[in-house]
Amino acid sequence: MTIDELLTTTRSVRKRLDLTRPVPMELVRECLEIALQAPSGGNRQGWHWIVVTDPGLRAQVGDYYRRSVRAYHASGTGAGSLFQDDPVRAATQRRVSDSSAYLGEHMGDVPVQVIACIQASGLPEGNQAGLWGSVLPAAWSYMLAARARGLGTAWTTLHLAYESEIAELLGIPADVRQGVLIPTAYYTGETFKPAPRQPLDEVLHLDRW
Fold first, then answer.
1. Which parts of the sequence belong to the Nitroreductase domain (predicted)?
2. What residues pair up with 186 in beta bridges, in sequence order?
3. N or C of the chain: less Cβ packing under 10 Å?
4. What pTM was computed for the model?
5. What per-residue confidence (pLDDT) applies to 84?
6. What is the pLDDT of residues 13-45, one digit of tens each?
7. What average pLDDT does the chain have?
8. What pLDDT score was predicted for residue 95?
9. pLDDT digits over 83-133, tens only?
10. Contact by Cβ (8 Å): 50, 142
């Protein structure tokens, strides 16, 4: 596929993750090697990658994620509650909410869970963008590389409600913070396409707001 096609059709895959097909670790490593080419502040490269494939550990991470997703949906602030005054966007939001709930119940069944982390003794005051900007672009590169190899992924952060518990479970040091949990599996079907987005001119500001 072309670069533009890759960038515009890499979607969050939740319901269409193949939970029964193993993902070779060699393929995950290829994607991570590409991720390591992303920029980082001061070229520190302080990222770390936890790849969880053990069924028991995946199930435990999935349990924490399930709890967080259920609380999120019960709060009434989830994706499904947004844009209720716009019938078209509201329908899209309901689908997003439904697929989010599905992944919440099945995160523990996903064959590979990738947690992108960054080494940080503490969260900086005033410029957290500098910290997270040194790992999140790499995580997106991983997702793009996965898509190019027939793997589906989704950007998820609700596990962070249990960050300390997951850190203890996986032996993550105290000075390493988790940024994103990326479920990774082969996907079913090949109908990915660009998603509806706000028109550029509604969000573009030239020189001044």
1. 9-175
2. 151
3. C
4. 0.91
5. 72
6. 999 999 999 999 999 999 999 999 999 999 999
7. 92
8. 76
9. 677 677 666 667 777 888 999 999 999 999 999 999 997 777 878 888 999
10. no
* Cα–Cα distance for residue pair 113/28, rounded to 1 Å: 10
Candidates 102, 113, 106; CA nearest to 23 is: 113
95 within 8 A of 195, measured Cβ to Cβ: no
Domain boundaries, the chain: 3-203
Query: Which residue do the tokens 């940024």 mark?
Result: 179
Contacts (Cβ under 8 Å, ≥6 apart) of 19: 106, 109, 110, 111, 185
Query: In the 3-class helix/strand/coil scheme, how is the chain assigned residue by residue?
Result: CCHHHHHHHCCECCCCECCCCCCCHHHHHHHHHHHCCCCCHHHCCCEEEEEECCHHHHHHHHHHHHHHHHHHHHCCCCHHHCCCCCHHHHHHHHHHHHHHHHHHHHHHHCCEEEEEEEECCCCCCCCHHHHHCCCHHHHHHHHHHHHHCCEEECCECHHHHHHHHHHHHHCCCCCEEEEEEEEEEEECCCCCCCCCCCCHHHHCCCCCC
At 121 the pLDDT is 77
The first and second tokens of residue 195, run together, are 């998603």
* pLDDT given at position 194: 92
